[in-house]
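As agreed, record minuted below.
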Amino acid sequence: MPIVTTNMAKVSINLATGSIQKEELIVGIDLGTTNSLVAFINPDKNPQVINDTGKGVLVPSVVHFGPPNGGDITVGNEAKEYLITDPQNTVFSIKRLLGRSYKDIENYKDFFSYKVIDDDSESLVKIKVGDKFYTPIELSSLILKELKARAEHALKTPVNRAVITVPAYFNDSQRQATRDAGKLAGLDVLRIVNEPTAASLAYGIGLNPEETKTIAVYDLGGGTFDVSILQIQNGIFEVLSTNGNTFLGGDDFDRAIVDYWIEKNELNKADILADTKLAQKLRLKAEETKKAFAHQGMVNDKIGDIWCTITRTAFEELILPKVEETITCCKNALRDAKLDISQIDEVIMVGGSTRTALVKRMVAEFFGRPVHDELNPDEVVALGAAIQADILAGNRKDILLLDVTPLSLGIETMGGLMDVIIPRNSKVPTKAGRQYTTSIDGQVNMKIAVYQGERDLIKENRKLAEFDLKGIPAMPAGFPKVDINFLLNADGILKIQAIELRSGVKQEVEVKPTYGITDDQVEQMLMDSITHAKDDVSQRMLIEARTEGEQMVYTVERFVEKNGNFLSVTETAETAKYLATLKAALTGGNKDLIHKAIDELNEFTRPFAERLMDEAISVAMKGKSVG
């Protein structure tokens, strides 16, 4: 709706969703940390999860790269088997890395068995497998491709459009990364939906536009926990607050059982964990035991010489502290939403670990009401996503769909790329923003060019406006923090605001709908974005690698220029060699070669920076006593 003629203020459902083929199916996808699944609306008009070729509904979110150098790629059930036999080439919990920099996850780096590249910067993380470098976007796209293939095989029809769910706490960068992963998998992502919103839709809450409710969604999965408080009014879902722990889940319950068996059998924990096959057998037995407590009070089994005996009561005592942690998160979420327990109308249970009787009991006791657990907690989010997809397809005439933006809005970033701020199909009015910084030391102006369209390169999109943010205080590259916010009102008028946070320098521009864009042009832009999706994403990744490489060259050359006297002749010569390799890679079209050259230069020069820091500290501390 931005920059369109005013008579387009109401966008038809066909245009808003970019529906190019009316008969085409739109699926709902739950892209999970541990497992993923896909659902659709069946001929009886009910949401249904897909179980293709008897492999089960849940697709493990695991990718394995076979030899040599990450050759054959397997995803899902088959890949999961390699977690023990080939951990360094098996990538799991990819969702934790989406839209994050190394600094965001460095405290959890020991959690991952594969190599997460530490480039000591704010740039997004990369994973190294053999000599190849993958972004979490590429890895997530492999899982989405597997889901797409399973859906197409089961439904015997092409699947090109989807709604994908994300946690309510995902920021703009993580949402955009999820959208990009879908695009790379060959999917037109119509909307990114909050998981709690999808879960409530699956229970029919929010489908009646006259309904006003406040609900709590308690989501306990295999590796993560979050609770969201939502307010639903006139069909609008507003997230009032969210809380949780991204490293707490059913896996902790399994570990507690294994630790209990190790203790009862008087075994050495370090020895057991060192034997990876035995440790895995015990973990699987613990998982089986946890599930058995749904219908029995005791498990008495044996693995080799190890007795695997435990009662349900002992199990509940073991996991009580973890469940109490989740209740504390619920208290915090209510406090942040400024609500009392009595104001919560419904409580929805999501995630396989909510099947545990103690969890259900404690959550119901805390909220003082029965919980919704009628639907399969593993499937509820995907089912809700399918309902949302059905709404977007225009098949539910009883539901009012708010006006939405027909094309994405964003700004130009380094290398001529389009960075989306407001994705297409966002409800209006809306507001979204992102933070940027400078790329050159002493930069005092920043050009902000605004574009509309679905392609990754700005030259393929439509330019709407351009202005300069002037008067940024001269600082080293990366120091200024510039917030760019897009505010789109109900009339399709876009206001762009840029502010440098350290100095308060501010600039605003309003883009009025003075010249129009026809329905046919929108349809053509959408069709082009789908047709060129794969090429566009490949080009984007090459440009991003080049931009990162050029920044690295600039930084290292400046460092050598300023601190050459701290380096030996050999170190200076070797640095020059690594720089030459990187510069040569930058002229080519292979992103993996560029990343490899960046990684090698970074590894070689890191000790210099550390040595210089030590030297500076020792000079500063000279003659001072400590303590």
Q: What stands out?
A: DSSP finds 18 helices and 26 strands in the chain. Residues 535-621 form a domain with the Substrate Binding Domain Of Dnak; Chain:A; Domain 2 fold (CATH 1.20.1270.10). The two ends are 64 Å apart (CA to CA). Residues 1-23 have pLDDT under 50 and may be disordered.
